Amino acid sequence: MPGPGRAGRLRPRTSGPSFQGLVSQTEPVVMVSTAGTPQRTVMPHLPIARYLEIFMEELVGRLTTLDPDASASLKVIVYFDSLVDGHAGIEAFLRGAAILTGSAAGVVYPGRRIKMRVDETGNRTATSGLAADHPWPAQSLGYADDAWVWIERMGTPHANDAMVLERLAWGLRMTIERSESAIPVDRGAGVEILLDASALPGERHRAGVRLHLADTDTARVVAVPPDDAPSSARSLSTVMPTPVGPVKAIVEVASARRPAVPPPPRAGVGPWVQVRELPESWRAAVVALRLTGASTPVLMADELGPLLVLAAGVDAQPGPIPEVELLDSVTSTWPWAASTLEALSAHDSVRAAAQELNVHHSTVQARCEQLEDVVGFSLRNQAGRTRIALGLRLQRLVHNRFG
């Protein structure tokens, strides 16, 4: 057996199979140096994790013998890159950080029930997490406010502590996302998280990763009644609860490789945004859907302007809205009232409204006089047309319900 010291250390061959190939052999072969003479030997059957640990320890030793001009930061980068390439687990990353810094290292991520610490000797120990008043160098994992990695360095930080923390956090993110991507994707659940304004940014990021969407990809949401648009197994859609009932959300991703899909017969189309901003597109799409009607079955939210703000006021109204009650009475009294009011609000003259309705202008003139007697104001000037137009939108916002 090889004696103590560097001459007796196990080191992978510098030629031949890579480490990944070495650990997959039935009988891994390494080179053992005894009294300076390299010899072939066969390693005993060990778990792959143990081979990886040996590789990590040897890599540290080999890095210390690099060209003295080589940057210490480059050594750290190479080290953690090797762990990512080797598909190392969380404990292996923490052990690597502990070896590199000579200090205990830990990670806590309550959202995924991850809590682990490795001491300065490389042994896994218990941890209660990261206290709010901790004195140690630490870095966020980027998922949530309570997801952190740290090294237990007391006193003045060493030159490479920041780089070790950065690469440790990066490597653990890669490992966590790689493990999540191996889980069968519930596309509907992923879309629901993407559109949830109350979800943490890190949760929406992970949902996007599993749906193969980057935070900066461009996308929009189309809101449709729940039974109006059948979904394929590959569509990014789900039925979402809203204050006006269940609404189907369809996420469309901008791509030059596929043509734009025409909206369903009735839809509210949200604005194009980055994936990280999809809750805003969803909110606008639902308002647009609520404003649709027989004359405007499809509405683009980015063409509605201040009408989007109108919805918030309607929803905050504690009681009935007098203007809506008046219009409800009028439209329930005369079957032609709703279409006539829509036409009058959209045109500058009675004759133009009559052409839209395909009736004689004298008929619309008579209707207009009849309606004015009930509503109490003129429908043939700009102020009256604007008031009716807003009233009809209020009516839709109040009464349009889905599901």
Can you offer a commentary on this structure?
It is a single chain. The protein is of the alpha+beta class. It has 4 domains: 1-45, no CATH class; 46-180, 2-Layer Sandwich (Beta-Lactamase), CATH 3.30.450; 187-313, no CATH class; 322-399, Arc Repressor Mutant, subunit A (Orthogonal Bundle), CATH 1.10.10. The protein has 14 helices and 14 strands. A hairpin with a 7-residue loop joins strand 7 (138-140) and strand 8. Helix 11 (337-346) packs across helix 14 (382-399). Mean pLDDT is 78; it is low at 1-36 and 38-43.
Q: Under the CATH scheme, which architecture of the largest domain would be assigned?
A: 2-Layer Sandwich
Overall mean pLDDT score? 78
Oligomer: single chain
Major sheet: size, sense and barrel closure?
Answer: 6 strands, mixed
Q: Return the CATH topology of the largest domain.
A: Beta-Lactamase
SS class: alpha+beta
Using only C-alpha atoms, the radius of gyration works out to 33 Å
Overall 3D form: elongated
Structural domains: how many: 4
How would you sum up this structure in a few lines?
By secondary structure, the chain is α+β, with helices and mostly antiparallel strands. The protein is built from 14 helices and 14 strands.
Secondary structure: elements and pairs:
Layout: E1 10-11, H1 19-24, E2 29-34, E3 37-42, H2 48-64, H3 72-85, H4 90-101, E4 105-109, E5 114-118, E6 124-125, E7 138-140, E8 148-151, H5 161-181, H6 187-195, H7 201-210, E9 218-224, E10 237-240, E11 247-253, E12 267-269, E13 273-274, H8 278-290, E14 298-300, H9 307-316, H10 322-333, H11 337-346, H12 350-357, H13 361-375, H14 382-399
Helix pairs in contact: 2-4, 3-4, 3-5, 4-5, 6-7, 9-14, 10-14, 11-12, 11-13, 11-14, 12-13
